[in-house]
Amino acid sequence: MKRALFAQLDSPERLVEAICALRAIGCASLEAHAPYPVPEAEEALGLGRTRIGYAAFVAALVGAFVGYAVQQYSTSSYPLNVGGFPLFSVLAFVPISFETAVLFSALTVFFSFFVTSGAPRLWAPIDEAEGFERITRDRFGVLIHSPDLESVRLCLESIGISRIVEIQGEPG
Amino acid sequence: MNDARLTRMLLRPVFEGRAARLLLILSMGPAIFVLSLLYTFVTGIGVFGTNIPVAWAFPITTFVWWIGIGHAGTFISAFLLLFEQRWRSAINRVAEAVTLFALFNAALLPLVHLGRPWFAYWLVPYPSELGVWPQFRSSLTWDIAAITTYFLVSILFWYLGLIPDLATARDSAPSARLRKIYGVFALGWRGSMRQWRAWRACYGLLAGIATPLVVSVHSIVSLDFAIAKLPGWHSTIFPPYFVSGALFSGFAVVIAVLVAIRWMFRLSWVITIDHLDSLAKLLLFSGSVVAYSYFVEHFAAGLDRPSHESELVNQVRPFGGLAPFFWVQMTLNVALPQLLWLKPVRRQPMSLLFVCGGVAVGMWLERWVIVAGSLAHDYLPSSWADFVPSITDGALLLGSLGTFAFLLALFLRFVPFISIAELKLERGQLE
């Protein structure tokens, strides 16, 4: 069975400090939890930038193309002379193409959130950890997977962290 | 104040709120709305005062007004996020809710205006064996795309921003039932750095996407008018004119709602006078753009040789049958906001409420003068006729306002309406 340690801290500064200390002793499998985004901790964990922006851009291009294609096709496939507008009224098709670009892009971003964040996962063993409910309130935490949990515990204690709990199972 | 206390204080309205009586009273609004809608659908659109030549009247005016009000919420959450205006975190959730509920009304009213709303799907391109498609060279079909997109993106943006706070509500819930309900909506948010990274990226991107969107939506709404060849409508100034008017009316409603919330929930420590002051400046700025647009509209019409345009804009509006509406509009939209140059007016909630109420009414009248005024005075004097609203028109407007208030009350009762995580972030960075 997999085991992990969950250490709790009081400030974002301590969080970054703990992450750096753990990485220094060679812990690779780390995750940090916080009530609000801490870019410094993301950096310390070595998380790069997401690639959602590229996906959003591609989706926007696809959206614009689909929007334009539907309008052009429907206009040409049943040609009606309305107020003398030409059948290839490129300018008249711009607004909807823009809107579909935005729509496709926004939907892509929204669903990328699910893919990259692992949501929805309504329960995970870490939820049972004592004090974990305070993560969304005012506490910060580090979750460590390691074959050698004893040295991890020693490392955490050496920088003065005492609120450490052990988690059984596959933590979130 | 530490973060635990902040969380508790901000979640208090959600967990300890008692609003059953107020919600019951406010449910009159949706009741009126539903009844007048049912009456309209069963009887037919003849129950409106709408008739030829004034074929667009109350529903369209109110639609344009609502969708404009929605713009301020997106501006506050998206523009100000991109410009890293940290103070927005105290007010953005409420502003987004105003957007959402305004858009709910805005999306419904054109359907009512259709007369036979069960054929509304004719407006979207769907493959049919008839091979007949919507007429995409007309601006009315652009509207459908713009409103649908705007409504969907607003919901996504609002919900994404809400997820961390729903998790906070889940973890602080006093009962197992509430914990489960908020837990489902929080989608298993655990505040891990990978989640925060995804959240920040997506939230920022949606803000970036919403920013040009919001400008495009009211531009497209204005094209409904500008593309038509009617005096008072067929004008190139319309897109920026409508967008600034939209922000103007939206800021007014957002400020009014914030002043009310601040008083009801005793939140003057979160929504400070400085917030109101900054918003009032935005109101004054957008109001100045609107005033300038009025000037250009009348000046450009005056440049023309005697024409229907100049006659309508510079004679019928200020001196003809539209004069009462026109002058009230000018007083409320141009003269009244000038009070905001005075610091004491900006920093006094009651005086702000007064100005904002005036602007909201004034902006409805502006749309009314544009929509119905032009239709009543087109190129053919023999077809000129003034519009007389019916009781159903009034009931629908009242019901629409009531529905907005009811939805807003539901939101304030059940959803964390101040962005708790962002507020903590803002405080964390200040210290």
Descriptors:
heterodimer, A: 172 residues, alpha+beta, four-stranded antiparallel beta sheet, 49% helix, B: 431 residues, mainly alpha
Description:
The complex is a heterodimer of chains A (172) and B (431). With 172 residues, chain A is an alpha+beta fold. Chain A is 49% helix and 13% strand. Chain A has five helices and four strands. In chain A, strands 2-3-1-4 form a four-stranded antiparallel beta sheet, covered by helices on one side. In chain A, helix 3 packs antiparallel against helix 4 (90-117). The longest helix of chain A is centred in the middle third of the chain and has 28 residues, at 90-117. Chain A is rod-shaped and about 80 Å long. The two termini of chain A are 15 Å apart. Chain B has 431 residues and is mostly helical. In chain B, 73% of the residues lie in helices and 0% in strands. Chains A and B meet through strand 2, helix 2, helix 3 and helix 4 of A and helix 1, helix 6, helix 8 and helix 16 of B.
